[in-house]
Design the sequence.
């Protein structure tokens, strides 16, 4: 029976009519019935009930008891992301974007983990979510999202990068390079900067195919009361390997590998392809770490027989004085970036330069060795006393040039 506002009235188990959105199926005896649950009439088949729009018992319990919040990037996403990917090669640059994201967020460690295993889908969300329980890439860093970051990552093409040039990759447009690998990026983040529960799970679903309640208006979802949720759908959390990766604070991204063509990208990613891309990034990871602001360790591992095995790592050691210099340089970058954001003239800003010594240790399980090299690194920002070309000065003054006037060089010490 239709209502004037288009909703459907459906009988409950006592044959009283209710709007369909207030009913649920009695389809899982393991889930305890709550006071708010009203079961649909038992004479209506589950198949027909779902066509009418009746929720499953699990979906009803999750939506009413675990502080579910609407979450997702807001735009015509599939077309926009597809076009964005054209500007980002599907190569090892994807991982450089994630490295830069972590550095701009203030992390000191980042960990790339390949997980080519399949996990139980018995206790997961309804619908197609079970398709995400297969091979994936995990990326952990040891800092959490703030509420501001959680808002920024939902604004496609907007974020730290476009607002402040000193943050070249903090959940800006570059993050979307991960859609070369997956259709459904998600992350589990934990820390004091999160207002709601100190631990939250976010799923971005531009296709509106996998995340519960995802739609074009909110193509994703955020869960906040995770302790209760984890008891209801424990298999959802298994592939994040939280016990192995997460400390008191951190973020675990999970990127289930694309196994079929989609509107986002028609390129499939298999285990061999991902391993090859990560191998190229490993070869460049030593050089990638020279001019970062915070990252001191990059690790690469794989999940084998339920255990996390370290394959490769790059670790930086510096003196306390050199660390202090790096911190001072970072503050200077933030200051100059803020000046550019406010359209202030920076060509008169005095040059700031630091010189540091980095001891870089590289562990490689294939060679069963750990090598150490010493590097002399110079970072500089600002302008020297020489005349600045008028074109450059004008471009900064009118906001046409928003790049940091920054450079650096790294030289190896001879042993």
Sequence:
């Amino acid at each position: 029976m239709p209502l004037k506002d288009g909703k459907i009235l459906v009988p409950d188990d006592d044959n009283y009519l209710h709007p369909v959105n207030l009913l649920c199926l009695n389809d899982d005896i393991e889930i305890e019935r709550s006071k708010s649950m009203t079961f649909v009439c038992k004479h209506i088949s589950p198949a027909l009930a779902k066509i009418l729009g009746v929720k499953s018992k699990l979906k009803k319990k999750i939506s009413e008891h675990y502080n579910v919040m609407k979450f997702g990037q807001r735009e015509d996403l599939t077309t926009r992301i597809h076009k964005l990917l054209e500007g980002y090669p599907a190569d090892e640059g994807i991982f450089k974007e994630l490295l830069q994201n972590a550095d701009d967020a203030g992390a000191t460690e980042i960990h790339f983990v390949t997980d080519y295993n399949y996990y139980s889908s018995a206790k997961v969300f309804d619908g197609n979510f079970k398709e995400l329980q297969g091979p994936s890439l995990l990326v952990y860093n040891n800092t959490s999202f703030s509420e501001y970051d959680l808002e920024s990552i939902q604004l496609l093409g907007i974020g730290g990068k476009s607002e402040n040039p000193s943050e070249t990759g903090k959940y800006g447009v570059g993050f979307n390079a991960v859609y070369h690998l997956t259709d459904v990026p998600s992350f589990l983040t934990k820390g004091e900067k999160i207002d709601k529960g100190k631990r939250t799970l976010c799923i971005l679903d531009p296709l509106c195919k996998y995340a519960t309640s995802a739609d074009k208006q909110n193509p994703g979802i955020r869960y906040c009361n995770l302790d209760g949720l984890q008891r209801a759908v424990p298999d959802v959390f298994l592939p994040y390997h939280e016990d192995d990766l997460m400390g008191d604070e951190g973020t675990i991204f999970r990127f289930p590998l694309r196994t079929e063509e989609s509107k986002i990208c028609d390129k499939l990613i298999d285990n061999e392809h991902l391993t090859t891309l990560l191998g190229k990034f490993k070869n460049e990871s030593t050089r990638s770490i020279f001019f970062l602001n915070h990252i001191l360790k990059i690790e690469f591992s794989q999940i084998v027989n339920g255990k996390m095995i370290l394959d490769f790592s790059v670790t930086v050691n510096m003196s306390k004085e050199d660390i202090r210099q790096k911190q001072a340089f970072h503050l200077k970058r933030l200051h100059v970036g803020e000046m550019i954001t406010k359209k202030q003239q920076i060509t008169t800003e005095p040059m700031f330069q630091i010189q540091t010594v980095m001891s870089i240790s590289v562990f490689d399980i294939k060679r069963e060795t750990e090598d150490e090299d010493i590097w002399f690194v110079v970072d500089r920002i600002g302008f020297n006393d020489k005349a600045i070309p008028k074109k450059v000065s004008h471009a900064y003054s009118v906001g046409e040039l928003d790049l940091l006037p920054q450079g650096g060089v790294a030289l190896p010490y001879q042993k």
DSSP finds twelve helices and 14 strands in the chain. Residues 158-162 have pLDDT under 50 and may be disordered.
